[in-house]
Design goal:
With 388 residues, the chain is an alpha/beta fold. It contains 14 helices and ten strands. The protein has one domain: Alpha-Beta Barrel (TIM Barrel), CATH 3.20.20. The strands form two sheets. Strands 1-2-3-4-6-8-9-10 form an eight-stranded parallel sheet. It has a two-stranded antiparallel ribbon with strand order 5-7. Bound molecules: alpha-D-psicofuranose and manganese (II) ion. The site of manganese (II) ion has 5 residues, from loops.
């Protein structure tokens, strides 16, 4: 039997990075709705991320997207964050919103466009030097829409060359994580569509390059936990972008669409040492809150990850191994399901209270009046959204 006391030390070190863009307005191609109190500056986004951490104790860092979060002085932004009790985390590059990248960026057929994209990543590394960030996250919109439009093979070779140039620029303590996505915005082929391609590319680079797994970037029915197991086994799972999907890359609250899938993923994370103290795995959210308030949306998200982590840790592994060895199919499955169905919320509430955190962070935030205060204070200026 594994008890809550047994798993507490792991919960203690759990950290989930928040995306700055979760606090801006977002939407679909049909409409972006504004919300009162939405940040107008990178500083305000960081303040909102710090609020999530204040209520949960789970989110000590915030990821930036460049150029969405471009400021004149990143050292100042770093001090601002640290003053609020959070650090600046992953730097996300962006080569998907500029006209020059219409036919791709790091995999483009034209050398000069590739160089511009490489230079953008060099600037991101400069930002990392100022913010103290460890990870450069690369997600590419590169791909094509029609068979024959471009050479799949040459683009892959260009990509390898571009990534090598970026990798060479990394400092000793910096890492590159390469995210994959099977489609969108390109619809015929994507240059980094799957974990295998990301793995092949990062393996060619060296030990400071890893794969980033965004839970929304797989075809329906994909066994994501198998990929998690494999990447951990290969030592190349660098980070997660957590979110939920019903249909495409929905970017909804993690654990909202399929809590059982999140449990299965975290079960493999635990098995593969992803929560060990020296683990290379960074846990991040990549979400947008189109119709719900953003701060409580992020609070709900990190709590969902914590709850499923606790359940995954509670699996009776001794009993499970014994059942597996005896080929006790239903017994083994039952042991896993027992942990999944355990309501850890009362124990987590107590655990929080013992640490001076609100027992119920959602209720405490709603009762605090903070959301109303932000709406009153943040008048004028231009609310930020999913763009620079
Ligand atoms: C692409 O869909 C993606 O998952 C990448 O991580 C981007 O940086 C992010 O979404 C923007 O929300
Ligand atoms: Mn992502």
């Amino acid at each position: 039997m594994t008890t809550f006391a047994d798993i507490a030390p792991v919960l203690e070190r759990q950290a989930i990075e928040l995306p700055s863009w979760a606090f801006g307005n977002s939407g679909t191609r049909f409409k972006v709705f504004g919300t009162a109190g939405t940040p107008r500056t990178a500083e305000e986004k960081i303040a909102d991320a710090a609020t999530v951490n204040d209520y949960t104790g789970l989110a000590p860092s915030v990821a930036l997207h460049i150029p969405w979060d471009l400021v004149d002085d990143f050292s100042e932004l770093r001090s601002h964050a640290e003053g609020l009790g959070v650090s600046l985390g992953t730097i996300n590059s962006n080569t998907f919103q500029d006209d020059r990248y219409k036919f791709g960026s790091l995999a483009h057929s034209d050398r000069s466009v590739r160089q511009e994209a490489i230079d953008h990543h060099f600037r991101c590394i400069d930002v990392m030097d100022a913010t103290g960030s460890r990870d450069l996250k690369i997600w590419l919109a590169d791909g094509s829409n029609y068979p024959g439009q471009d050479s799949l093979r040459s683009r892959q070779d260009h990509l390898a060359e571009s990534l090598a140039a970026i990798y060479d620029r990394l400092g000793d303590d910096q890492r590159l994580v390469l995210e994959y996505k099977f489609f969108e915005p390109a619809f015929y082929h994507t240059d980094v569509p799957d974990w295998g391609t990301s793995f092949a590319q990062v393996s060619a680079l060296g030990p400071k390059a890893y794969t980033c797994l965004d839970t929304g970037h797989h075809a329906p029915g994909t066994n994501i936990e198998f990929i998690v197991m494999q990447l951990l086994r290969l030592g190349k799972l660098g980070s997660f972008d957590f979110n939920s999907r019903f249909y495409a890359d929905d970017d909804l609250i993690v654990g909202a669409a399929d809590p059982f899938q999140l449990f299965r993923i975290l079960f493999e994370v635990v098995n593969g040492g992803g929560l060990d103290p020296d683990s290379p795995v960074a846990f991040m959210l990549d979400q947008c809150h189109n119709v719900e308030d953003k701060i409580p949306g992020q609070i709900r998200s990190v709590l969902n990850v914590q709850e499923m982590t606790a359940r995954a840790l509670l699996v009776d592994r001794v009993a499970l191994t014994a059942a597996q060895e005896q080929h006790d199919v239903l017994g083994a499955n039952g042991i896993l399901m027992d942990a999944f169905y355990t309501d850890v919320r009362p124990a987590l509430a107590e655990w929080r209270a013992a640490r001076g955190l609100p027992a119920d962070p959602m209720a405490a935030y709603l009762a605090s009046g903070h959301q109303r205060k932000l709406a009153e204070e943040r008048v004028g200026g231009k609310q930020l959204s999913w763009s620079a």
